[in-house]
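Amino acid chain
________________
===
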Amino acid sequence: MKTRQLNVQKQSIGPIFARFFSSGVLKELAYNGHSVIAGRLAKQYKLFEQFGSDMPVGKYYDAIFKRLVREYRYEYIYKNAVAEKILLGIHNLNTSFMLTEFRADHCKADAVVLNGTSHVYEIKSEKDNFDRLDRQITAYRKIFDNISVITSEQLYEAVQEKIPQEIGIMVLSDSGYKFRKKPYREPTSNRNNVVPVAIFNSLQRTEYLKIIKEIFHVSLAELPNTQIYKESKKYFENLPPEVAHDKMVEVLKLRKNTRKVCEFVSAVPNSLKSSALSIRFTQEQRSRFIQLLIQDSATAFV
């Protein structure tokens, strides 16, 4: 009976730890300097007894992240691997940036890394299925240069059989938090095949107006709101695919206040890199969150 209870506890603790990385908890910490949700979870599941109530918040997050890597590899683990191992490990924040949940046609891309070009990463963890994968890849082909699927070792063969040869595959090791060198497949460039109108529909108004003004030397901002979309779309229909793509990369890298976001990303622990990139905080909230990282977890989780 005791063994069964322990197994049930082990199976259920993963989703509990995952809630600490939810936008709800992180926003509470940044907005208020403490989190009621995290405090309730810590007390209910006796987490202070496991990690100690005097453990600083930053180290607490790293500790539960390690447990999640071992026991509950949900989507955030993979997103954070893209942020930590690819964006910060291969590229750097001076020349590159990462967007999450980016609108692409009728889909949302898990992670998009922008440097000199675009690379979209679709995550298929053990907790996902392949029901939407064909539709997702079709959508990404309209917008991005490089397309890769990130998956686990146990799903590698299934992914390989499911996707076209020109789509890359990356594998997050089951035995550690790193991407395996083999099996691995590089994507083929898709830059010349993107669809300018699909790119247009993924951009914000200020972004596509900026592109039109730079290329065609025309300002459409004076038009009535009802006409701006229609006229802007016509201009994009006349853009070469590679030009539409490259201009998209330029404007997307300006989407956030890059310098301040980069400072924030550098200041948070490794376990929170993806969250630091994806959740919108004001400068005041970022400062409060950074200060909170060195406080005792019992003070922050109340």
User: Anything to note?
Assistant: The chain has 16 helices and five strands.
